[in-house]
């Protein structure tokens, strides 16, 4: 009986690795680019790899690089990345209902390993998800992100200096590339981006706030404004 249970666990883990393989492949170019940009931002290879190991959140890490590049303080960086990743509370709560009952330390691992991609793969699996499957999906995705971040850093060392300098522009280009498709799909996202941009500009030019605090306040205020507008519109439709 123990042998059968052991085989079952290995099988679940293997299925998880297979399910996460596409994520690992998809993470490669993004992690490579992150490592390259981290080098041009001034991080060491140790700092770059540690950020990927301890944070494991693509959008938050890219935002951190942009904030580091303009000399933002650590508190502003923490608050900004917290706001960006606040959706992980909802994803963690959702997966806690999907996964089989397990010990607290394993649940903490699940919470750490949740990304948009791993959440999607695990949540669409039929029935209760076993621990082995979730671990397999998250482990192969995590390994790809960490390893390729380091590889990207070393690739940056062999690039000509003029290309390394130009990569600072690539950081902003990547943000535009991430934002524009979302804006095309949602009017709400477009409105949020415009309001946040306007508020950030106003705060920068009319106050003594640093770049980091300006971004944090603009993000929070614009999110509240957009949600209030959505609620008001919803109320008006209900009264019609």
From TrEMBL:
BP term (GO), one: L-valine transmembrane transport
InterPro entries, sorted: Brnchd-chn_aa_trnsp_permease (IPR011606)
Recorded GO CC terms: plasma membrane
Keywords attached to this entry: Cell membrane, Membrane, Transmembrane, Transmembrane helix, Transport
Signal peptide start-end: none
Main subcellular localisation: membrane
Recorded coiled-coil stretches: none
Residue ranges of the TM segments: 21-39, 59-84, 133-156, 162-180, 187-206, 212-230
Protein localization: Cell membrane
Keyword Transport listed: yes
Source organism superkingdom: Bacteria
Membrane topology reported for the UniProt record: Multi-pass membrane protein
Entry annotated with the keyword Transmembrane: yes
Similarity field: Belongs to the AzlC family.
Protein name: 4-azaleucine resistance transporter AzlC
Organism encoding this protein: Rossellomorea aquimaris
Species classification: Bacteria, Bacillati, Bacillota, Bacilli, Bacillales
């Amino acid at each position: 009986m123990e042998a059968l249970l052991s085989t079952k666990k290995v099988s679940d883990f293997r299925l998880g690795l297979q399910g996460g393989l596409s994520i690992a492949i998809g993470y490669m170019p993004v992690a490579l680019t992150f490592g390259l940009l981290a080098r041009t931002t001034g991080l060491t290879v140790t700092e770059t790899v540690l950020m990927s190991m301890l944070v494991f959140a693509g959008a938050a890490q890219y935002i951190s690089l942009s904030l580091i590049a303009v000399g933002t303080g650590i508190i502003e960086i923490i608050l900004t990345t917290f706001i960006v990743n606040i959706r992980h509370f909802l994803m963690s709560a959702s997966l806690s209902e999907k996964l089989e009952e397990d010990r607290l330390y394993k649940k903490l691992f699940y919470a750490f390993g949740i990304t948009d991609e791993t959440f999607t793969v695990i949540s669409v699996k039929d029935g209760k998800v076993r621990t082995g499957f979730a671990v397999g999906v998250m482990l192969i995705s995590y390994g790809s992100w960490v390893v390729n971040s380091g590889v990207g850093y070393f690739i940056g060392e062999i690039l000509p200096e003029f290309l390394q300098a130009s990569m600072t522009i690539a950081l902003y280009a990547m943000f535009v590339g991430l934002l524009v498709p979302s804006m095309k799909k949602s009017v709400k996202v477009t409105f949020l981006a415009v309001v946040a941009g306007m508020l950030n500009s106003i705060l920068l030019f009319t106050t003594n706030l640093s770049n980091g605090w300006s971004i944090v306040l603009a993000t929070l205020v614009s999110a509240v404004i957009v949600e209030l507008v959505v609620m008001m519109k919803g109320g008006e439709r209900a009264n019609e």
